[in-house]
Amino acid sequence: MKVAAAALAVVAAGASGIAWRATRHADLKPLQRFDVDLGSDVSFSQSLGVNAILSPDGTRLVYASKEKLFTRKLHESMVTELAGTAGAAGTFGPFFSPDGRSVAFFTSTQLKKLSLDGGEPVVLCNAAYGAGGSWGEDGTIIASLSFTTALLRIPSAGGAPTPVTELAPGEVSQTWPQILPGGKAVLFTSDLASIAVISLADHRRKTLVTAGTFGRFVPTSPGSGHLLYLNNGTLFAVAFDPDALEVRGTPVPMLNHVAWSPISGVAQFDVAGAPSGPGTLLYQSVEAVGSGLVTVQWLDSAGKTQPLLAKPGRYQRPRLSPDGERLMLEIAEGATSDLWIYQWQRDALTRLTFGAGGGAAMNAVWTPDGRYIVFWAKGGMFVTRSDGAGGPRPLTRSNRRQAPYSFTPDGRRLAWFEQGSGGFDLWSMSLESDGNGLRGGKPEVLLQTAFLERQPVFSPDGRWLAYGSNESGRFQVYVRAFPDTGGKWQISNAGLAYPVWPPRGHELFFLSGDKQIMVAGYTVRGDSFIAAEPKVWSDKKPADFGVNGGSTFDVAPDGKRVAALMPVETPETQREQNHLILMMNFFDELRRKVPLNGK
């Protein structure tokens, strides 16, 4: 009670607006809303992880801004940058230790912990694409170290991860875990679409919610409480028995317009408070992360834009057809996404996939002749005609994520990056065309190292392979000969990757760590690839979907302009880039609206 009152007094003093409504229950405090402005130098990104969290007692805030982590106590105005997090361009997704004195977080390559009393971060283990973690009372951490693996246990002192769960048949991911009180069970999100729980004693598993993501248990009563989860931007609550591992009654909508990501299933909210206390909810509104809405614009090197697809939408990973006449897009709908083809001469947007493979269709690439499209969905890679005739057909079968990325100029070989036991590796296979479409040969390793490699793309003459790797500790763009002769050249010097070769000329485009479109000229001398110093191609930046959110541009066939995803900016989204919302007495609101007896 004292913690909540202290936090409330301070936040209220600096809040831009306060709204509250009373309840008729004399023993329950009224819900109170506080708009918290963190300052003009703070900007939340389109993160794949949680941007802001509360300490278990609700007195401290940790948040991510501009690829750094910061902390402040709610009853103080002083903000502290957490040492060793600058430039760690990862998913972050921080989570507190049970005592609130340390915080763990993901970079693009590792899971680390940091004491809030000072010092440098300590590496706990490698992590390809961290998708959430939970720090148990017994000192162990249960985490999802990538978006295509089961849950793992990691000692909070560091050490080799050990399996906690297994993927069910056909299941691709287990993300955003939460260890329940007592450490006997774990909540998690399955395939970014449902909430499940598993007993750690007998591995008994139950699906609690069939349409939701980012489940969180709230101990609103000793030994009992509520399950919170998000469904398409709405926060729901339902009574939950943590001993029986069962929900009771019907879910009730508690709050609309909560920010979330259909790419990762993360929801931007957190809760804190004792079971007998009034409790606190922290969240970001949809506007705080721009709601993911973008337009597609032609962008040239002078920064001039021209509408290509002016209607705002949740578009991702633009890919121009080889002739430049069509644009392929992923369009997110709820917790999934499908492929669409836009023909701008006719202003026609046509849906190409309909839940292929039982889930999202992603990472699509055109064949060089423009007749087919290969993409990843649950179950492997699929191929479909670009005119939509016939529907998708399996090209490979795998429970691992296989992200197709590039064809050789003759269309006879496909390169992709694939989730392995230690991270992403580069693969390829030969292709043949028959009356039924494309048929793949035996998969072959292109590049497999102790590091993470991704985004392999062949040069227009087929002699070179550009790709991204984190071997330097940060993702950079590299080039190797194809077939590989052992030579390797680093192209970028400011992080990130997403290389793109224009069809003509001797240039290589890519994204920098601050999401700027860069270009590097190059020459070839014998077997050597000689790259010039990279330079900013255009001062105007495309949208920021975070380090793992996919490419946000593609180069037109003439190499003089790009099709870029540009953020939709309004006065509201500008204002909300540094805002959080606190809901005080939130546990009391749950008790009032969602009785624990489920009735």
Could you characterize what this model shows?
This protein is mainly beta and 599 residues long. The chain is 5% helix and 46% strand. It contains 3 helices and 50 strands. The longest helix has 13 residues, at 2-14.
Brief write-up:
The chain is mainly beta. Strand 11 and strand 12 form a beta hairpin. The longest helix has 13 residues, at 2-14.
How many helices in DSSP terms? 3
Distance between the termini: 28 Å
Based on Cα principal axes, name the global outline. Answer: globular
- Tell me the structural class: mainly beta
Topology of this structure?
Layout: H1 2-14, E1 18-21, E2 31-37, E3 52-54, E4 60-65, E5 68-73, E6 80-81, E7 92-96, E8 102-106, E9 110-115, E10 122-126, E11 133-135, E12 140-143, E13 152-155, E14 162-163, E15 174-179, E16 185-190, E17 194-199, E18 205-209, E19 213-221, E20 224-231, E21 234-241, E22 246-255, E23 269-272, E24 280-283, E25 294-300, E26 305-313, E27 315-320, E28 327-333, E29 336-343, E30 348-351, E31 362-366, E32 372-377, E33 380-385, E34 393-394, E35 402-407, E36 413-419, E37 424-434, E38 437-440, E39 444-447, E40 453-458, E41 464-469, E42 476-481, E43 488-490, E44 507-511, E45 517-525, E46 528-531, E47 535-536, E48 553-555, E49 561-567, H2 571-576, E50 579-584, H3 586-593
